[in-house]
## 1
Amino acid sequence: MTVSPVAASSTPPASAGSPKTVDYQSFLKLLVAQMKNQDPTAPMESTDFVAQLATFSNVEQSVQINSKLEQLLQASQLAQAGSIIGRTVTSADGEISGKVTEVRLYSDGVIAVLDNGKQVPMLPGVKIS
């Protein structure tokens, strides 16, 4: 089961509106629809009902945990991004270098804006001095 993350920037996440995404509200709608459409002559066993309620509770807790983890990750990324302001950054290929004046945090990564106006994506291989 996939729970869509909350975007940390102005760019929307790629998974927004994805039919593969199941959240708390979707699960609740499915459970209610199942209960409405069950055969009254052969109602759901009480053990099955309890198992579905337990699953419902697990889905709700998973959504809340994912939300808190996403907030924690965003805070960590912000702290790390802020720590490179004023430092010199060199791109992985060595072609772009300069002092960081601004940092932009997007859902897909961090971009350092240099004093010469150029931008360097903070990817593996970037040198910070």
Note: DSSP finds two helices and five strands in the chain.
## 2
Amino acid sequence: MFCQVVHELNSVVMGNNFPPIIASRNYTYASIAAYEVMAGCYPEGYQSLAGQINQLPEMPKPEGNEVMPELAATLAFIKVGEAVTFPEGSMKNYRDSIVEMAKDKGLPSGVLEASQAYADTIAAVLLIWAKGDNYAATRGSVKYTVIDSPGRWIPTPPMYADAIEPNWNQIRPLVMDSADQFVPERPFPFDVTNKNGDYYKQVMAVKTVVDSLSPEQKHIADFWDDNPLKLNVSGHVMFTTKKFSPPGHWMGIVGIAAQKAQADFATTVYAYAITAIAKFDTFIQCWDEKYRSNYARPETVINKYIDAEWRPYLQTPPFPEYTCGHSTTSAAAAEALTKVFGDNFAYTDTTELEFGIPSRSFSSFRQAADENNWARFYGGIHFHPSCLVSTEQGKKVGELVVNKLKMKK
């Protein structure tokens, strides 16, 4: 049941056009709320994250034995997931249906009331803590300054959208000490004059691969596209299409893995929580670098210096190129899921079927993350060296999370 609840939140996130960075925050706080309910109800098996992630206070313990952990965790997830980002009531109907289902199945009123009360108690503490992450303050921060200088990021067609979340490095990390705890190596210096240089070679590699994509390469690019809001332009007609964002895609993978492993409810909640936490911190790490290097996208460079009519296979996202957000966070998620389900965990990812994209099968979570590197390159939106560096950075953050957090006893 919990996988269905997460999917419902995922659909609401998609419907409200939230970018992946903000979506990750929503999934994470909701997942922590559910996890803290499980830790409170099963202290012999799970340890609270209080004192383990930054500034999280002690969590209330359930009173008596009437709380139904699965129901309380689900209600806490919904309440925090709705409250952190969405207007009040966006998941009310879904929450009400779960409560009614519990009543229809004959759950005693005392158990229902105790479960609701414990969910509300945990949610209240989590929401107070969440307000301290500096998110509200960044809503009024200075926007990215567009400077059309060689090698610097500028908005790209067809949306020419403003840079998304240039101040995300001000958000409080969960496990990392700071946003710049893992600063990657410097990208290749901008230089389109030296055709034998590393920078020019990586630019031409993107153009060459996009100009001759095979059906398999297109499938890989489409499968990992995860563009939450694509602007389609056909003559004078413009319309948008929506899909799950990168964190939403990986939340789907968590559910697929949990179901294949026949994981119990508590293990499933644990898997969602540790994966969401790893992705949350990697977004902070990655966005810190994006607006440090302000690296231009391949599309910008190719259009200006090589071919004005060239377009990437995928639509370029509205933020700097270096490092790659999808590669970074995918690598971190792979480390978290490997911690829960083990290495060489083979699975078929069916997440994209609802968008008409055929499934792909993987021998491990790490293999899936590695394929994502190629996907961003095939899509023409990232230089491949950037993706490789991003994977190493994501692994570092993921390893920090799985080694530092003591969750499952």
Note: The chain has two domains: 2-136, 149-404.
